[in-house]
Write a structure and sequence with these properties.
This protein has a five-stranded antiparallel beta sheet. The chain is built from two helices and five strands, in the order βαββββα. With 170 residues, it is an alpha+beta fold.
């Protein structure tokens, strides 16, 4: 008689606020190009780090980046500016989640604040062997959270279609 391996009990659901990450960075000379504006790759790195922390907070596991949606820089961020990064889980599927990251900047001298970018990233939760593992469900409460979760399905379908097209092209 074979003994069936028991499944782990389902993880408790978590709300988006439990995953929220707020990072603040100061744009230093090593972050900038010849014109004194921040390198896009620096911002992308900060976005990826904030999103990874949010995904890890939600899943309680190591999470790796699976995709980053388009990232458009709406306004330049200059040396000496303060960059604020806000990340939160918006949707969870079986082993993956979507994280929304908003980037804003402030000129501390002029006391100006402005939105500079938004991106949606997908992360996969991994077990100790590096295999995808289930994440806790997301428990949305507010109307805004529910809209983000609903719209995440549209973004996910778009990402899957694009991935299939890219794989077919190779």
């Amino acid at each position: 008689m074979k003994i069936k391996k028991e499944e782990k009990p389902a993880q408790n659901s978590r709300n988006p606020e439990q995953s929220r990450v707020k990072m603040t960075e100061l744009v230093l000379p090593q972050h900038t190009n010849a014109l004194g504006g921040i390198f896009g790759g620096v911002v992308m790195s900060w976005v990826d780090i904030a999103a990874a922390i949010a995904a890890t907070r939600h899943s309680g596991r190591v999470c790796v980046t699976a995709s980053i949606d388009e990232l458009h820089f709406l306004k330049p961020i200059k040396k000496g500016y303060i960059v604020n990064i806000d990340a939160v889980v918006t949707s969870v599927h079986r082993t993956s989640c979507e994280v929304k990251v908003d980037v804003s900047a402030e000129n501390p001298i002029a006391r100006e604040h402005f939105h500079t970018a938004r991106a949606f990233l997908t992360f996969v939760s991994l077990d100790e062997s590096g295999r995808p593992t289930p994440m806790a469900p997301l428990k949305t409460k507010t109307q805004g959270e529910k809209i983000l979760e609903r719209d995440a399905d549209k973004r996910r379908n778009h990402r899957k279609k694009l991935k299939a097209e890219l794989e077919a092209a190779n």
